[in-house]
Amino acid sequence: MANTTQGTERRHSEAGRLGPAYPDRSRSCYADGMQRPRLLFVTGKLAETSLRRTLEELAPRAGFEYRVAVLPITVAALATTPWIARHLTVPEGIDRIVLPGLCRGDLQPLQALAAVERGPADLRDLPEFFQLANQAEREYGKYDIAIIAEINGAPRLRHDELVAQALALKADGADMLDLGCDPGSTWTGVGDAVRALRDLGLRVSIDSFNTAEVESAVAAGAELVLSVNGGNVSAARSWGCEVVALPDDLASLAGLDETVEKLESWGVRYRIDPVVEPIGFGFAASLGRYLEVRRRYPRAEMMMGVGNLTELTDADSAGINVVLLGFCQEVGIRSVLTTQVINWCRSCVRELDLARRLVYHACLHRALPKHLEPNLVALRDPRLRSHGETTLAELASHITDRNFRLFAERGLLHVLSGEMYLRGDDPFDLFARMREGAEIDASHAFYLGYEMAKATIALALGKNYTQDRALSWGFLTVDERSRHGDSREESAG
């Protein structure tokens, strides 16, 4: 998922196209006697029974009629669209073809047969697939919180390193790049750095209490200064740009009112940051300061530096970022500053970009932020799927070739082929038993070891495992293509 944000928006855009054709019958979109759309679901031999069982329950609720086309291949998801076009017969009166989501290739070869869509990657997700239109109607994906991403130690970076970091942060979702300066020295090249980023069309802020650095940066096009308080606020009068106002004393907010009063009298735009503190150093009280500032200044712009929590807490940053942005959304804090220095924070900008959409939707529609953004659930999957013992036994009874099918569920690894059905929790023991019943060459052994490792990880973490498919790590998922698996299944078909 190279661009998670675009992927999220595209998913909901596609859902919007599905909406009119696939209404939810529970909302009485079709009166009795009216024509319902007729859909053709394409599948392979192994998934036929499960698909028919799912559609029998789903179709009346979702408001469509269906037919099932079983292709002469074991797993239809491994077939390409040109191959499907050569082997698929479309019955009369079909309005739309629904392919397995993992089918690869251009849909054009199938368009001559009927309108065609890719369904979900897992047929067990079909119910959710037909309900996505509801989310699209609520315009999921909008946000109003800006992300300021700090480039830490900017004066120590080469020009190409600075530009590369800035462009990468922008691509991840940053709205503004903050140049973090080193205290105790003056960065003489700050103006050149700001101009270079501005020439690339990037918005820039400067993070420094050094007046000389700030003046050079502002003259070159920096539009925000972090930060001012009673000690340097007088300099802000001539900068001609927006500033972040801090209290002189965090605990009491002392000096903040005076600083804000001066900025307003001079016509200097500002946003207030009461500063969130790390856990154990006044975290709860610091959140209270944001509420107090909002009470005093109900219309003022505010900012929160979330790095004081994410960078200074031994925990994956995604969950912390979601909670902090939920607080910001409710309080009306419309900008956050983040860093990506420590390794567990290396994807904070992408996390914040996803989180701001989730919390905006939750607050706007008063809807729980749940079952909306699967890309933020990385360690475990949102929902565990299980075929069940009966279905696996039924699959095993239909397999006639010697290729291995692997499953992982209910604490066990399952190995199915035309010659065996094994199950157990030890992949080494299972592999030894597999070798007793079949010849396995080195290449196939490597493939099976790789797949069993994935399956074992899935069992340990509570994730779904699908053979020849990457485990889902939310927005961190890296797609995998198993040519070994493709050729194995194509030959089996």
What descriptors fit this protein?
493 residues, Rossmann fold, TIM Barrel, 8-stranded parallel barrel, 18 helices, 15 strands, 14% strand, disordered N terminus
What level of helicity do the residues show? 25-40%
Q: CATH homologous superfamily of the largest domain - what is it?
A: Dihydropteroate synthase-like
Residue runs with pLDDT of under 50 for 5 or more positions? 1-32, 484-493
Q: Which structural class do the helices and strands define? A: alpha/beta
Physical arrangement of strands within the biggest beta sheet: 5-6-7-8-9-10-11-12
Q: How many H/I helical runs? A: 18
Which helices and strands, and how do they pair?
Blueprint: H1 4-18, E1 38-43, H2 48-62, E2 65-70, H3 81-87, E3 96-99, H4 108-111, E4 115-118, H5 126-129, H6 132-137, E5 146-151, H7 159-172, E6 176-180, H8 190-199, E7 204-207, H9 211-219, E8 224-228, E9 242-245, H10 256-266, E10 270-272, H11 283-296, E11 301-305, H12 307-310, H13 317-331, E12 335-338, H14 348-365, H15 389-398, E13 405-409, E14 412-416, E15 421-424, H16 427-437, H17 442-461, H18 483-492
Parallel strand pairs: 1-2, 1-3, 3-4, 5-6, 5-12, 6-7, 7-8, 8-9, 9-10, 10-11, 11-12
Antiparallel strand pairs: 13-14, 14-15
